[in-house]
Design brief:
alpha/beta; five-stranded mixed β-sheet; 5 helices
């Protein structure tokens, strides 16, 4: 995702190169090119200066970083929203009823126990 698009989606003010591609969210000290990270605690100012991230989400009054910055009055909320954009949510497991219905389609076909192993523990 282009940094300009991310800034718009998060409601942040962009300072830096908006054409950068951001692909992941990572911690301040572990971030590298293609990553966006997060800074709020002055205790980590050294890590902010050393980060290799493409961009950082930080507060309006935070010190400048050496990478592109997304500034906001609520960096915690912006970071939570960034996580929601980049981290896939787990898909719910299929309902047992649907699994049983799918399995019943193959009851008259030779499956060599494939479905028995695959769906072990599902009640028919």
């Amino acid at each position: 995702m282009k940094l300009t698009d991310l800034a718009e989606r998060l409601g942040c003010r962009l300072e830096g190169d908006g054409t950068l591609d951001v692909q992941r969210v990572a911690g301040l000290e572990h971030a590298g090119p293609g990553d966006i990270t997060f800074f709020t605690n002055p205790k980590y100012a050294g890590a902010l200066r050393r980060t290799r991230a493409s961009a950082v989400i930080l507060g309006d009054e935070a010190p400048a970083a050496s990478c592109a910055m997304l500034r906001t009055n609520d960096p915690y909320l912006a970071f939570a929203n960034a996580l929601a954009l980049f981290v896939a949510s787990p898909q719910p497991a299929p309902a047992p009823r649907r699994l049983c219905a799918a399995m019943s389609l193959f009851e008259n076909y030779r499956t060599d126990g494939f479905f028995d192993e695959m769906f072990a523990g599902v009640v028919r």
